[in-house]
Amino acid sequence: GVLKKYGYPAVLFVPIGYLDDRHPLPHEEHLAAEGILNPTVDWEELADLEREGIRIESHGISHRPLADLEVDEAAREIALSKLRLEERLGRPVRAFSYVKGSEAHYKQVHLSLVRQAGYDVAFTAVSGANSPDTDPLQLRRYNIEPYSPRTFELVLAGACDLISLKDTVSGTHARRLFNAALGTSTK
Q1: Alpha-carbon dihedral angle through residues 9, 144, 69, 15, given to the nearest 10 degrees
Q2: Is residue 92 packed enough to be buried (19+ CB in 10 Å), middle (13-18) or exposed (0-12)?
Q3: CA nearest 67: which of 30, 29, 24, 111?
Q4: Alpha helices by DSSP H, the chain
Q5: How far is the CA of 2 from the CAs of 5, 41, 77, 125, 152, in angstroms?
Q6: pLDDT in tens, the chain (187 residues)
Q7: Within 10 Å of residue 74's Cβ, how many Cβ atoms?
Q8: Residue 134 neighbours by CB distance under 10 Å
C-alpha cells in the first residue's frame, strides 16, 4: 500500500521450498512453537503480487545459508529456484538474495554458481551503499527498520556505512569472541 502510494518498487525474494508449505521458515520456528504463525505465500499468490507491483525473485529453496551446504547442493538451490520461478512467472528471474547474507554465509564459489545460473545481480545483507565498482553479485543494502526517520535519512546519505563492518567476516568473528567473553549470544 505505502510503496504503491509513493511509487516505490519492491522485490520479494522467495525460498521456493516454502511456497505452498505452511511450515514456518527456519528462523521463525521458535515463534511457531509459541503459536505465532507467519504464513508464507503460495505459488498462486505470486502472480497477484507481481500485478500489485511487487517483483518476485529468488531466495533459493530451503532458506539455508549457502555456506552451510555442500557445493552441489548449493548449485541446485541457486539454479533450480531460478528455473522453477521462471516457469511459473513466465519471465526471466534476474536477481538472487543470499540467505542471511553476511560475508560468513556465502563463499567465492557461490558467486560463480550464481553467475553460471544466469543471474544478473545478487544481494547480500551487508549494510552499505553500492558504487559503480561494486560487484553486481555482492550488492549491499540497507535495512529500513527500526530506524527513526532522522536515522534513516542519515543512512540514505551514507553517514552510517560503518555499520557494514558487523557483516564482514572480521566483524562476525569479533562479535562471536565478544559474545563468548560475555556469555551472551547473537545470530
Answers
A1: -40
A2: exposed
A3: 111
A4: 2-6, 29-33, 43-51, 71-89, 108-117, 149-156, 169-182
A5: 5, 20, 32, 23, 17
A6: 556 765 668 899 999 998 876 676 766 666 667 766 767 788 989 989 998 889 999 999 999 999 999 999 999 999 999 999 999 999 999 999 999 999 999 999 999 999 999 999 999 999 888 888 999 999 998 777 666 777 766 766 666 665 666 666 766 766 677 667 677 665 5
A7: 22
A8: 12
pTM for the model stands at 0.76
Burial 100-124 (b: 16+ CB within 10 A, else e): bbbbbbbeeebbebbeebebebbbb
Residues counted in the chain = 187
